[in-house]
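Structure request: F-box only protein 6 isoform X1, Camelus ferus.
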Amino acid sequence: MAGVSINELPESILLEVFMHLPARQLLLNCRPVCSLWRDIIDLVTLWKRKCLREGFVTEDWDQPVADWKVFFFLCSLRRNLLRNPCAEEDMTSWQIDSNGGDHWKVERLPGPHGTEFPDSKVKKYFVTSYEMCLKSQLIDLKAEGYWEELLDTFRPDIVVKDWFAARADCGCTYHIRVQLASADYIILASFEPPPVTIHQWNDARWTEVSHTFSDYPPGVRHILFQHGGKDTQFWAGWYGPRVTNSSIVISHKMTRNPAPSTAHP
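Returned structure:
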């Protein structure tokens, strides 16, 4: 019996076969095989079905999607890029940039003269002292799975969030700085609002800080996240701002509709 080429199968069957292959294998190994495979792998139908299969969208999804292939990869990569954001591993993964006063410390919520966090899953926080305490993380986006064309052509939103609170019996000053940098660490965009000062005898409530980087310049390869502060009374111990539940998430929401991507991750 003569051999039968897989390319003689109906396109609907090939589409079904490709549906069950890992996305990166499709683009890196299958798409270059021939023009037929390339055309099928570039079909919107394939990537929309893969999104449905992975639960990224539902059948009644009605929001416009500029590129389903890119949408699939952004959804599959979506996560908090900051490690140990809620102090569950003490100071692990954080670079200590300033360790003034009695240094950084981890405490359990609600803490002395504190309040519970809005999300009950968050159990701990980092707390600062009477001189400046700053800590940071540097994120390598390529190491996290984001390839160059995705970052430079589609430029998905980069959503930054942080939470801080004061002790009710002490004032404090809170700082945050987030920078987008190139491969050689040239700063391309920055979020650095003025420091927030909370006066003594406050309600100790937790406050969320949020910023979205959109339409930033091409070339972003790193994200530097830094936050911290100090108390305003210069009291020994840990009376400065408390921080927890920080996050950096690459969002699938895009602001424009570029031509369909053919780049490999």
